[in-house]
Predict the structure.
Amino acid sequence: MTSFGLSDDGETVYLTSAVDDQLTEYRFKEDFGASLEGQPFGYYRKPSTGGYNFITLSAPTQAAANAGPKVGPIVISEIMYNPAGAGAAEYFEILNISDSNVTLFDATQNKAWKFTGGIEYEFPALSPLTMTPGQRVVLTRSIPDFNASYTVPSGTLVIEWITGKLSNGGESLQLGQPGPVNALNETQFVRVDRVKYDNNSPWVSSPDGGGPSLSKIAEKEYGNDYINGRPWQESGRRFSRSFLR
């Protein structure tokens, strides 16, 4: 086999059938994004549909069945993309599911984590945010509207984003952390978590203007799957129960 290398800032891999070095009709390709050192990519079979996502895995498994998906340390745990009532605020929640503090800033590159899909928001660099184990942080499009519509436990950090809004028709909300630098000296962001939600079946419809938010059921499991999203009244979430006044 001819030696080769794969870029840590992302590229595309092709598999093509051939006869005597002549390419034939079968061709398959897979795009992968930027990755941190030691992070493998692979296929994960979603239990809901039997479909597959090509994602970061929890461990490399050469010549063996793929390991499960890498989840965390920070996950998107709740999304209010179409709040009910005039003036109600969009928001979503992130959660540290790990047992350690997580600082949303890379000191080696002097760059903060940011959302790379759904909205535009970069976390503070001058005063980096450190999330303690189990801590939840709420991001909203309007703090005044949020405070007028919801209550949260004392001490909960609520952050306002300025650019972009959550689509009522569904989209990909994605959190990234600084990763490798490409040939143009541009920092590539590595996906930490993504939820590609929808307001159509098989996703639950009640979060689409019906009042509840879309809440992750099993917070430490893979979240980009409708089977792990329910309205918060049905899921019995402790934190979200105190949101709605």
